[in-house]
Amino acid sequence: MSDYHDFDHFGLDPLIVAAVKEMGYTTPTPIQSKAIPVVLKGRDVMGAAQTGTGKTAGFALPIIQRLLPQANTSMSPARHPVRALVLAPTRELAEQVADNFKKYISKTALRCATVYGGVDMDPQTQALRSGVEIVVATPGRLLDHLQQKNTSLAQVQIVVLDEADRMLDMGFLPDISRILNLLPKERQSLMFSATFSEEIKKLAANFLRDPLLLEVARRNAPAELIKQEVVRVHESEKTDALLTLLKTRGAGGGRMTQVLVFVNAKIECRRLARQLQKAGVNADAIHGDKSQDERMKALEAFKKGEIEVLVATDVAARGLDIVELPAVINYDVPFNAEDYVHRIGRTGRAGASGLAIMLMTGADERGVQAIEKLTKQKFETQTVAVERPRGERRDRPPRRERGERPARAHAPSPKPVDDFFTKPYEPAAESGEALAEEETAPRERGKKAARVAALLGGSKR
Ligand code: AMP
Fold first, then answer.
1. Which fold has domain 7-215?
2. Do domains 7-215 and 226-402 have the same CATH topology?
């Protein structure tokens, strides 16, 4: 869609365009060119776009435009009912989306509030009670507020399900259904998802009305600007291999900086960050056990370049807004092939190219094959000359691994790591999104690993 070379031609209010220009955006991204005119017209949208494509502005700008006629400076909360609701899977994504909204509405009288679990409810309650047109929320905590009558959704005109696939992965479907049932039937609904499973299609069929399918990236395929590499390592050499890569794969063969390293479990996340620190790498960990404050601090330090390596689990890293992250390393092959697409989507964003390296042991073959199938590519594997502490020997040469039967199958672990995963949702003040913030529930892993998602656009619609 080359009709929209700049933000002046969408018919957006000058107050919005001015705010967008202040953010330094000059050219709309492809999803913005496609989504803005359609959302402005009031159509429902099914957007196939990952975080990093500019999708937030793609829905936020036209939503703001549609709400502008009702913007007012009255002090009365009744004059500021919730008119737009964005549901997001994690605190980080909710904050990020709300931050964007706040910048785009900065020159208008519209108000925006963020609502997520794991933090004190009171400031959120105050914001909701004083009246706010745009609410960005994670589902569990929003239900808590609704239960306490801190807000009402009776006047919502537009609802967005952001990263819908991840919300379903995290078991939010019942919460989402409860929330959607509280919305007026007459409304505009938008749904964004990086991947399209049968469940997502079903949700779209139930919840969207005659939606327009907007697709920007190749289906289930990582952004093309990402250079992907697979490094074959022995299980016992993974950390040394990582250290070697960190030392040698930066610009000009030097040290890598600003690297996001993915692991599959939070225990591993802690352990690896500690090991990297011991080896002199400025590393930190971000996982579901860390408080919101700790996670935001780690993220800020990472963004500023004070932390070189951030070790993360999938859920903790979901939706992190780090523009032009140079590299992502998959220390563990993800349980779900779809997570690979999400993980490496953190690099090569907004037009910048990126590097995605994955470590693969003999036990990972099936996991890697699933990724190859999903992303329709065949990886060339390579090895790395690992610098090991003197005196230490590798158990077996990597070549031997090829014929080995995987010692650890790529299937769901039979038992959750701890009972946190199995605890039912408790709508207490602190529990809000805690469950959601945990690593993807193991029950989902096996199911999804076996299921290679087909996209909505697979058949002509
Ligand atoms: P999103 O996919 O919405 O998370 O956006 C990814 C990043 O791209 C965010 O940091 C945005 O601020 C930035 N961004 C969004 N739209 C544009 C644009 N048109 N030009 C430059 N950067 C943008």
1. Rossmann fold (3.40.50)
2. yes
Which of the residue ranges 125-139, 238-252, 260-274 has the most confident prediction, judged by mean pLDDT? 125-139
Any idea where the domains of the chain sit in the sequence?
A: 7-215, 226-402
Cα(428) to ligand 1 centroid in Å equals 35
Predicted local distance difference test score (pLDDT) of residue 194: 80
For 301-338, what is each residue's pLDDT tens digit?
Answer: 888 889 999 999 887 776 565 556 788 999 999 998 88
pLDDT, residue 386, reads 80
Q: Identify the H or E element spanning 198.
A: helix 198-207
Q: Which atom in ligand 1 lies closest to the alpha carbon of residue 323?
A: 10
Total-model pTM? 0.60
Q: Is the pLDDT of residue 3 over 90?
A: no
- Ligand 1 cavity residues, CB under 6 Å: 25, 27-29, 32, 51-57, 321, 323, 350
Fold of 226-402: Rossmann fold (3.40.50)
Per-position DSSP letters for 391-423, written without gaps between them = T---SS-HHHHTTSPPSS-SS--SS-SSGGGTS
Q: Distances in Å between the alpha carbon of 376 and those of 128, 219, 355?
A: 46, 10, 18
Nearest CA to ligand 1 atom 21: 25
